[in-house]
Amino acid sequence: MLESVLDNCEKRMNKCIQSLSADYQNLRTGRANASLFEKLTVDYYGAPTPLNQVASISVPEARLVVIQPWDKSVLPLIEKAIQKSELGLNPNNDGKLIRVNFPALTEQRRKELAKSAKQTAEGAKVAIRNVRRDAIDELKKLQKSSEISEDEQKDGETKVQKLTDNAIAEVAKIAEAKEKEIMEI
Description:
Blueprint: H1 2-25, E1 41-44, E2 47-50, E3 55-61, E4 64-69, H2 75-84, E5 91-93, E6 98-101, H3 107-144, H4 150-183
Antiparallel strand pairs: 1-2, 3-4, 4-6, 5-6
């Protein structure tokens, strides 16, 4: 019983870390990144279709993304989708493909992005602490119903705390790397 609680706790904490990493991939830095366009959808024949299913997305230079649709009739739709998105980018359509230049971020904008990254990391830490609380509650229930001993409960709580400390340290490491990436010119 104790092992299943610890395994579940570890899996849930890892999901929190993976979620943070996914959120950070969609956070725009000064560099071009194809993953920024993953959540973008295009109204293709009346159905919202992910951009990566109607075009190839490449990053030939540090500040340029090239989007080449397989069907040229989709170009205006892709251009409109990028303009409507919250990315704040201006696509250039040359009739064959779309080029998206990533302008250098201003210092104020980098500070705003770094603050946003810190808030996202703090949210991940709160989620991890909630997982810890749930695991400890589960251990207490198991001890009350005499499925585990009091010593096993205390040992389990210690292990849950170690998992929590490791997960929060990982979140801090990821957040620090992202902040450093955002703040570099």
